[in-house]
Design goal:
- The chain is α+β, with helices and mostly antiparallel strands and 149 residues long.
- It has a domain of 92 residues: Immunoglobulin-like.
- The protein contains 1 helix and 7 strands.
- 8% of the residues are buried.
Length: 149
């Protein structure tokens, strides 16, 4: 029996972005100038807020900029390569360094002035509250007395 999977536009956009990043990195190669990396991001749509969590190991809160413009939330920062080897050479370098930028189109009906962000143990959490009018509400149904009573 096949499972029903709810369509998630963020997953579609993320897949497209990842594929575009792969294509650009292949065509530019390592000689393309300043390196860039893309942090992993999870987006959750809750009843009261949209929550974004981004993995940003090695950064401090001061290294991160967050802005909202025309319902687009953008996170920017830079992870700098600061290790120096005086005696010897690098055997392997796999961690990515450089600047990054991630943007997320927010739905209508958010409270941009109430967006809050916390940073703990290398994970940035951004909470985007929904406006009251877009939250689902339960409507009570009252019964009227019939004229026959």
């Amino acid at each position: 029996m096949a499972a029903i999977v709810r369509w998630d536009p963020f997953r579609e956009m993320s897949s497209l972005r990842d594929e575009m990043n792969r294509l650009f990195s292949r065509s530019i190669g390592e000689t393309g100038g300043a390196s860039a990396w893309t942090p992993a991001v999870d987006v959750f749509d809750g009843k009261e807020a949209i929550t974004l969590k981004a993995e940003l190991p090695g950064l401090a809160a001061e290294d991160i900029d967050i802005e909202v413009d025309d319902n687009v939330l953008t996170i920017r920062g830079e992870r700098r390569f600061e290790e120096k080897v005086e005696d010897g050479r690098y055997y392997r370098l796999e961690r990515a360094y450089g600047s990054f930028s991630r943007s997320l189109q927010l739905p209508q009906g958010i409270r941009a002035d109430d967006i809050a962000a916390t940073f703990d143990k290398g994970v940035l959490e951004v909470r985007v509250p929904k406006a009251d009018e877009v939250r689902p509400r339960r409507i009570a149904v009252s019964a009227q007395a019939s004229a026959a009573e």
